Amino acid sequence: MIELKDIHQIYDGPQGPVEALKGIDLNVAPGEVFGVIGRSGAGKSSLVRTINLLNRPARGTVRVDGRELTALNDAELRAARQGIGMIFQHFNLLSSRTVYDNVALPLELSGLRAAETKARVEPLLELVGLASLRDRYPAQISGGQKQRVGIARALANRPKVLLSDEATSALDPETTRSILSLLQQINREFGLTVVLITHEMQVIKQLAQQVAVIDHGRIVEQGAVLDVFTQPQHATTRSLLEDIAPQQLPESVLARIRALMQDGHAQESQLLRIAFAGEASADQPLLSQVIRRFGIDLSIVHGQVDEIQGRPFGSLAVLARGARESLAAAVAHLRGAGVLVQEVAHV
């Protein structure tokens, strides 16, 4: 549905040209929710705005729904953009227009008659839960309600692609969850392809199926959300995951582990990080199996078990004790069952 190839974006800065995007390649499948995450200034908004050519790249090609947008003239591009809806961080509503009229605006600009506009707008207001607020102005509704207006407006032209540029970052956590649930419903019911720009891994966790991590204008890691969460490869990804899937053990836990490892026990001790994802790993009694089979002791000293869109994932810090050969065999057994096992070298 969306293909970005060798995208470069350059802006004029106070001290000369600034390269915001550096050779981005990205493919988003039809009907997919694709998340792009990175820190402030990483290039996220520059990236999403190249998809509808609000920012035309200095180099590279953008293809959406089979059309190469970078090859279109202005009139053709305006027509193509009707198939690409966009919602914004700060809503971008017109204060002088009611909720109904804000949603109707793109249809009026497209030349639809009033009756056709009404037939489209009213179901959208029902969808986003704002039918009773249709005659209110933006100043009379909450931030979450404003974003719902923005979502309805983005859907007015019946797009195939929906771009979300930090759509929840100005909202409180409860409102954020409701907006993400609405976007999930829209993706499911309409089959829209959604590109979700955010700096919050919690947003990716709730909504996205695939994720790309951007850092200093480059994609440094991408893949299925479950894989990236459980096996992050890049330092930026691991840092962004700290709030919901910590990669580092708290110092208080490390101190307790040091004490356990120095208590004079004669057996070999290893601190292992065990990460698992999906039902196949989560539902098996793997730890009890290796305790019985290999005659080792396992103590869970830290951990977290959660879900990504109904699929379990988790990370456990386990202090393993036993003969060296038994520990090695237990680790091999866990890895053979599809569990990621890493020895924590520095405690």
The tally of structural domains comes to 2
Indicate the low-confidence ranges by residue numbers.
none
CATH topology of the largest domain: Rossmann fold
Strand residues, percent: 25-35%
**Elements, N to C (H/E):** EEEHEEHEHHHEHEHEEHHHEHHEEHE
Mean pLDDT: 87
| Major beta-sheet overview | 6 strands, mixed
Helix-and-strand structural type: alpha/beta
Q: What is the CATH first-level class name of the largest domain?
A: Alpha Beta
**In what order do the strands lie side by side in the largest sheet?**
6-7-8-3-9-10
Question: What's the helix and strand layout?
Answer:
Layout: E1 2-13, E2 16-28, E3 33-37, H1 44-51, E4 59-64, E5 67-68, H2 74-81, E6 84-88, H3 99-109, H4 114-127, H5 143-155, E7 161-165, H6 173-190, E8 193-198, H7 201-207, E9 210-215, E10 218-224, H8 225-230, H9 235-240, H10 251-261, E11 268-277, H11 279-282, H12 286-294, E12 297-308, E13 311-322, H13 324-336, E14 340-343
Parallel strand pairs: 3-8, 3-9, 6-7, 7-8
Antiparallel strand pairs: 1-2, 1-4, 4-5, 9-10, 11-13, 11-14, 12-13
